[in-house]
Every structure is written in structure tokens, then in C-alpha cells.
Specification:
By secondary structure, this protein is an alpha+beta fold. About 50% of the residues lie in helices and about 15% in strands. The strands form five sheets. Strands 1-2-5-4-3 form a five-stranded mixed beta sheet. Strands 11-15-13-14-12 form a five-stranded mixed beta sheet, with helices on one face. The protein has a four-stranded antiparallel beta sheet with strand order 17-18-16-19, with helices on one face.
Length: about 700
């Protein structure tokens, strides 16, 4: 449709005029005129559309613009806010919008517009792709997320007319993503309101119970807060510290979360109300802390210095819990005016206070850094759902602060391990790490870090990520890089195995000559594949049978299947050769290989019961043998029937360890009060190594009745 102003809805005209009066406090008249023009276009485009509540749809974009005006966002953002739904819900095109209002406005509108005309496997995947699109737009212009947050905030404020199930679904998404993003970019007031609104719809009874308790104590503590505030004002004035002191109430969801995390009763919480002290400079913050501690007894271990070590969103303040004169817990927060401005408006302070120098705006800096890290992992994240998983992980607000060997501070999510630290230092360090030193002591990579740890990573060029690493790392950067490394190695290993398997099959049908390029291209065209490596990967992963591909290469041949040398298994082939869990083959066993889709070649023992399938589908099986130079550790299961005697498990474990073997798993089952069955999974290098272990175990005749290896 062509963009042209039309007759406007009277009610919305009143709203936009009221917004204009508010905007006159900080915007120029020509900027307000441009916003009014955006309103005229938006009102015309949405004419005839109503919200669930029945009110004209244009009321919503105006309300979103009003929320942004309250944090003094610039005129271009307000124009985008008023137009933010026109591309998604009306006939206006991108080009029409760009020609009338400019590329920056239309880019912001596109950033908050959901993806349309695209089919996804599930609703969750579509939502995940919308988040990815929004965050990519946010990386180019951070105002996109401010518009989206204001949009979500107004929707949450006006959700009463929606069905209960939709209220709960939207509230969960808001709590999981939008409130967390608001916290991440320093928009604390919005974050707290989004949390409380979500909590109210998700758990209405819990919300009411806590808010009633807060109101109850509010009446009792209001006078005390005023008295403490005045007392501190006087004491700080006497020390020559210019200050502003007032009370602050914790939001309902924060109270609930603290009660859940620390298993506390409401009456045990000491920071429902806090005294906030605003001073002029950083130095005044520490001077004011001394005055507070002179007047009120500090509680041991309840002091946090977020000025020296800011939170991940740039928040700075001193927090100290003290006892008031009645012996009740009370939190005091001390910060400078600049710190307070940033704490209240986060990245928006970039526009509200015209601080375009990033060094003067920590939230702007940390938000951009966070976005750059997300963009770094985004191309490797695979599916949209996987990207959303990384986003949720990286939105954890609880942080641990650890030190590099050079004394630099790294912030990681709570629960992060030494492996997460390695990837936070550098992807190359993570990919080649073998262990870590925490406070100068060697620890495994799965060690969970706590604030204050000094961490040093030990690396080796021969080390590479293994699938088990995904079980104990939590950061998006670590998980994405591990998955990407495994995928690349899997493809490489699959192609290498596929080449070996195809060569064996070609030999079996008597085709030993080198394949010509023309023959390869002919087959690729027939199979509609991009390149030869893709075909080899399909063979290596079990998607295509090597004998079938060999016959496709020579379709006119008359085949007499020849015996060939078994494929040698070296024990270090990579990710595409695995050892069957049903029989756990080890070097020295007779073995056979089975093609399995996605698992590649699976090695079984020759006596495994599962190889009866060989007779039904012989094309899925391959002759293999252990190489003379086989290496590595292999798992094997043992059953040990014992007498119930004190210390028997410890003696068996010691015996196994003395034979240079690791115990990977152990279980004990009591039979009749006098006997037990112990099942061990241990690592061995060969049948000879296993025989030595069994021989030593059988010497313990006083405790052991029978020792055997699981056959399959």
C-alpha cells in the first residue's frame, strides 16, 4: 500500500498529543513533528485493527513509544517504536517505509519484526530463529532490543484479556529471555517489572502471598527506614560528604528467588528493604562506607564490592548488610551519581545522558562485548534451538570471578568449570587443554570454579575435545566450539573411513584400478551430491553401504566377490569407529565390524550374540582384525562374586589399580546377606593385560568365589 496520512482515531490523537508534550522536555520541535508523522502513518496502517482487549491497535505502539520516552530515548527510536508492527501486520512494504523515514528506522523495525513465510519444524524452533534474528539486529543497533523490551513490557502490562495458557507461555518466555536480557544490558527497572509480571501470571498464589507479606512489613518498617536515612544524612554531612539517602524495596520475584535458592523463610531475609546512599565520587563511596560501619554494626561476610569488580552488566555499587539499632538486618547500597544513573538506565544512558563515549558507559561496552561473543558462536551453533540454548546459558546473572595467572579477572557463569575457563581464555586453549591448575594444584577439567580461584590451563597439541566434555561445560562458547570441533573431526574421520571401506569393496569385486575423475563426477551427478568427500562421509557414517557404492561405480560388471584382507583396527581411528557396548571387544578378541547409520563402523566380538544379524543382512557386516600396532585403553566388564567381608571392595580396587588399570564404573548387589555380586567396568590394553588382572584377583580366595568377564 502507498504510505499517506489519513484521518486519525480521536482517542489515539489524544495519546500522541500527550506524548508530544512529554517529549518537549528533551526533544527539538522538528523531532516531535517527525514522530507525529510516524504516528499518522501507523494509525492509517493499523486502522480497523483491534487488540484482544478491544481497543484500537495503534494504542499499543504509542504506549511502547511512551515507555521509551520515559528513559529519554532518541526520536528515531520512538518513530521505530510507533511503526514496529507495520511490516508484520499491515500491507506497508520495507521500501515504502525506508523511503519515507530512512534506513535506520526501517532497520530497527525489521529487527523486532518476527520472521514470516518461513516453515519450521516446530513453534519452538520458529521462536528460537526470531530471537537469533533479533539479536543479530541488536548487534548492529542496540536500540532494537530497547524497542523489543518496551514492546514486551507493555504486552505484559495488558495481558488480562488473554487465555490463561497463553498468559503462562508468554510469561515463561519473558522470564527466561526478556527479563534476563534486560538485566544483562543494565535495564534494572524494566527487568524487575518484567520479572514481577511474569511471576504473577505463572504463580499467582505465591505472588500474592509474598506481596502481602511485603505490604505488611512495609507499614512497620517505613518509619524506621526514614529514621535511618535521616541519621545517615546527618552523619555524612558532618564528614563533608554530599549525599542523597532514601529507601529501596526489593521486587517480589527477587524475594521469591532468594527464598528458593537459599531455602529461607520470608522472615529470614535481611535485604527486603535497603538504604541507598548516592554520593558524588568513587572515593566518596568508600568514605561513606566507613561512616555507615561506624553507625551500624556490619554483618560478617555480607559485604560485596561491585565497584572494584563490577557485575557482568557494568553495575557498580557497594553492598553491606548491617544491624540496625533494634538488631534487625538491613542492607545499605552506596554508589556515585554516575554509577546510579548507569544502574537505573543501563545501555539507555547512552542516549538519555548523551554519553556517546563508550568508556563513560560500561553497560554499552559490556552489552556490545556480550553480543560480539554471541555472534562469534552463532555461525557454529547449528539449529536455531541450539543457539537459543546458548543464549539462555549466557544470560545467567549469577557470576563467579576467577583470576588468570597474570592476575586478570575473568567472569564466568555460576557452575562454570575449568574447561569453560579454558575456552573463555581462547578457543585454541580450550581445544587443546588436558588439565588445569586451580590455586597451583592440578585438578581435572570438570572441576567447578568458585570466586577467587586462580586458574592456569595445561595444554598439549595432541589433545582434542571428546564428546564427554559436553557433560561438564556450561558456557555457550565452550559448548559451541566443542560441538563444532567434534563435527569437523567427525566429518574428517568419516571421510577417511569411507575411503578405506570403499577401497575394500572395490577390491572385493575385482576393481583395483584408480577411479577416474569422470567416473567420480558421473556417480556424484547420479546421486545428486556436491563433492566426493560428501559421498565418502556418507559411507563412513553408515548412511551408504560401501559395496552398494562400488557396484554403482561399475554397474555393468559381473561380480565374483573375492576374499580380501580384513580391515585393520588400530584403536586410534577417531570418532567414526566405536566399540559395541553389548560385548566390549578388546585387542586379542576375534572381531567383526557392523555398519550403523550415524555411528559409522561398530566393532563387535566374534562371539557377541548380536552378530546373528550377520546372516540376515550380510551386506551390513565387514571383516576386520586388530592391527599389530593397536594402541589405547579399552573398556571391559567383569563380574566378581564375593563373600561379604569388611574392606573387600577396597582390596579389589587396590588390586586392579596395581595392575595399571582404571575403574570406570562399579556396582554392588547384595544377594543373601552373606554374598555379593560386584560388577566392574575397567580399562585394559589387551586380553593379555586383562588375563593378568584376573589372575591377581583370583589369588584372593578368602574373599572371591568367582571372577568372570562378561561375554556379551
Amino acid at each position: 500500500m502507498a504510505i499517506a496520512p489519513t484521518a486519525t482515531v480521536p482517542e489515539s490523537r489524544i495519546l500522541i498529543d500527550d506524548l508530544g508534550k512529554y517529549l518537549s522536555e528533551y526533544l527539538a520541535p522538528q523531532e516531535i513533528e517527525q514522530i507525529d508523522e510516524a504516528y499518522l502513518v501507523g494509525a492509517a496502517a493499523h486502522d480497523g485493527q483491534n487488540r484482544k482487549s478491544g481497543e484500537p491497535y495503534i494504542f499499543h505502539p504509542i504506549a511502547v513509544a511512551r515507555i521509551l520516552a520515559e528513559i529519554r530515548l532518541d526520536s528515531r527510536s520512538l518513530m521505530a517504536a510507533i511503526l514496529h508492527d507495520v511490516l508484520e501486520d499491515t500491507d506497508i512494504t520495507r521500501d515504502e517505509l525506508a523511503n519515507k523515514f530512512g534506513e535506520d528506522v526501517v532497520n530497527m523495525v525489521e529487527g523486532v519484526t518476527k520472521i514470516g513465510q518461513v516453515e519450521f519444524d516446530s513453534k519452538e524452533q520458529a521462536e528460537a530463529e526470531n530471537f537469533r534474528k533479533m539479536l543479530l539486529a541488536m548487534s548492529k543497533d542496540i536500540r532494537v532490543i530497547l524497542i523489543k523490551l518496551a514492546d514486551r513490557l507493555h504486552n505484559m502490562r495488558t495481558m488480562e484479556s488473554m487465555p490463561t495458557d497463553k498468559q503462562q507461555r508468554i510469561s515463561k518466555q519473558t522470564l527466561d529471555i526478556y527479563a534476563a536480557i534486560a538485566t544483562r544490558i543494565g535495564m534494572h527497572a524494566w527487568a524487575q517489572e518484567l520479572e514481577d509480571l511474569s511471576f504473577r501470571y505463572l504463580y499467582p498464589k505465591r505472588y500474592k502471598a509474598i506481596s502481602d507479606e511485603v505490604k505488611k512489613i512495609s507499614r512497620n518498617r517505613k518509619k524506621m527506614i526514614e529514621q535511618v536515612s535521616q541519621s545517615l544524612r546527618d552523619s555524612l554531612f558532618d564528614k563533608g560528604i554530599s549525599t542523597e539517602v532514601f529507601g529501596r524495596e526489593k521486587n517480589v520475584y527477587s524475594i521469591y528467588r532468594k527464598m528458593q535458592q537459599k531455602r529461607l523463610h520470608f522472615s529470614d531475609l535481611g535485604d527486603i528493604y535497603a538504604i541507598r546512599v548516592i554520593v558524588e565520587t568513587r572515593e566518596d563511596c568508600y568514605r561513606a562506607l566507613g561512616v555507615v560501619h561506624d553507625n551500624y554494626k556490619p554483618v560478617h561476610g555480607k559485604f560485596k564490592d561491585y565497584i572494584a569488580i563490577p557485575k557482568s552488566n557494568g553495575y557498580q555499587s557497594l553492598h553491606s548488610q548491617v544491624l540496625d539499632r533494634l538488631g534487625q538486618l538491613m542492607e545499605v547500597q552506596i554508589r556515585s551519581r554516575d554509577m546510579h544513573r548507569i544502574a537505573e538506565t543501563g545501555v539507555a544512558s547512552h542516549w538519555a545522558y548523551k554519553t556517546h563515549n563508550s568508556e563513560e558507559n560500561p553497560p554499552q561496552q559490556v552489552a556490545q562485548q556480550w553480543l560480539m561473543e554471541l555472534l562469534e558462536i552463532q555461525p557454529q551453533a547449528g539449529t536455531p534451538t541450539e543457539f537459543l540454548e546458548h543464549l539462555k546459558t549466557d544470560l545467567f546473572t549469577d557470576q563467579v570471578y576467577v583470576f588468570t595467572p597474570k592476575g586478570e579477572i575473568l567472569k564466568l557463569p555460576k557452575g562454570a568449570t575449568a574447561l569453560d575457563f579454558a575456552y573463555a581464555v581462547h578457543t585454541g586453549v580450550g581445544n587443546h587443554c588436558v588439565g588445569a591448575k586451580v590455586d597451583r594444584e592440578m585438578v581435572p577439567l570438570h572441576t567447578v570454579l568458585v570466586s577467587g580461584n586462580q586458574v592456569e590451563i595445561v595444554t598439549a597439541k595432541s589433545s582434542h575435545p571428546t564428546p564427554s566434555w559436553l557433560n561438564f561445560c556450561i558456557t555457550g562458547k565452550a559448548r559451541t566450539n566443542i560441538r563444532n570441533n567434534l563435527k569437523n573431526r567427525r566429518e574428517k574421520d568419516a571421510a577417511k573411513l569411507g575411503r578405506q571401506l570403499l577401497n575394500v569393496s572395490l577390491q572385493q569385486i575385482g576393481q583395483n584400478q584408480r577411479l577416474s575423475t569422470n567416473k567420480k563426477m558421473w556417480l556424484l551427478d547420479n546421486l545428486k551430491l556436491a563433492d566426493w568427500n560428501e559421498l565418502l562421509e556418507d559411507i563412513g557414517t553408515g548412511k551408504r553401504l560401501p559395496m552398494m557404492v562400488a557396484r554403482q561405480l561399475f554397474p555393468d560388471g559381473e561380480y565374483v566377490i573375492k576374499d580380501t584382507q580384513p580391515l585393520p583396527i588400530h584403536g586410534a581411528e577417531g570418532l567414526m569407529i566405536t566399540y559395541a557396548r553389548c560385548c566390549l571387544p578388546i585387542p586379542g578378541d576375534a572381531i567383526i565390524g557392523h555398519f550403523s547409520a550415524e555411528r559409522g563402523l561398530v566393532i563387535h566380538r566374534g562371539i557377541c550374540p548380536n552378530i546373528v544379524e550377520q546372516e540376515k543382512h550380510p551386506e551390513n557386516w565387514l571383516s576386520v582384525e586388530w592391527s599389530k600396532r593397536v594402541s589405547g585403553d579399552f573398556s571391559v566388564d567383569m563380574r566378581i562374586d564375593t563373600k561379604d567381608r569388611p574392606g573387600v571392595l577396597a582390596r579389589l580396587a587396590t588390586t586392579i589399580a596395581e595392575q595399571d588399570s582404571n575403574i570406570n564404573n562399579v556396582s554392588v548387589e547384595s544377594k543373601d546377606g552373606r554374598h555379593s555380586v560386584m560388577r566392574f567396568t575397567i580399562s585394559v590394553k589387551s586380553r593379555i593385560h586383562l588375563a593378568a588382572i584376573l589372575r591377581e584377583l583370583r589369588k584372593q580366595k578368602k574373599s572371591i568365589l568367582h571372577v568372570s568377564r562378561r561375554i556379551g
